[in-house]
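Figure S7 source data.
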Amino acid sequence: MKKIAILIYGALAYLIFLIAFLYAIGFVGNIYVPKTIDSGVEPTLLNAILTNTILLSLFALQHSIMARPKFKEWFNSIFSQAMERSTYILLSSLALILIFWKWQPITTIVWDVENTILSSILIGVFFLGWLIVLLSTFMINHFELFGLTQIFDNLKNRKTPNPKFQTNYFYKLVRHPIMLGFLIAFWATPVMTMGHLLFSIVTTLYIFVAVKYLEEKDLRKFIGEEYETYQKEVPMIIPFTKK
Ligand SMILES: C[S@@+](CC[C@H](N)C(=O)[O-])C[C@H]1O[C@@H](n2cnc3c(N)ncnc32)[C@H](O)[C@@H]1O
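Tokens for the predicted S-adenosylmethionine complex:
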């Protein structure tokens, strides 16, 4: 019974993640969804900057704290280990939904590409960024990354093996293709407003800091020399920048 409950919990967490991921494309791209990065009533500039920075900081805090090995150890000492990744995914998605819901627009234009060809190219690059994110998750292990492997293994009384360290496909070009995809998707836009720019700057800073000082620190600790060699040979985020 408990295993079935964990299975349903993990499946729901994945479903909420899928909705949040798809909504994020519409939110950042100002397409398809009712509330986007540039829509809604514009508050005072100070109010918008403060609210948006707090929203992004909440996401960054949740994401960084829950990804730490110490937090995982604590979580697993209280709850079933099979729920750990699903809980991370669920809370990340809820933090994202809070951003979509409470985001305050700042619609002052920073750039507006009027050339239709260039504008279409930028929209194409925007979608390419999201595609890189999605494909990269399958190049490590999409189902383990989103907690599904763990909940099925738990149901079958199997222990989920530690994730395999990957250096193939996009991971041959850069060490963080998922983050590269996000950066492309956040910056490639024909119309950049001040609100969108704030979003892109804060998320870019967070990505670089979190990858360099948190994720890679953990990866070096767990994988060891093999990861250090990988760091020497493969660029962090921008392809072809290492000899
Ligand atoms: C959201 S993913 C982001 C992965 C990577 N930073 C990227 O941008 O493609 C975070 C998880 O991927 C794992 N990870 C990072 N690099 C990996 C690799 N080369 N092979 C397997 N797992 C990796 C980390 O341990 C972490 O659990």
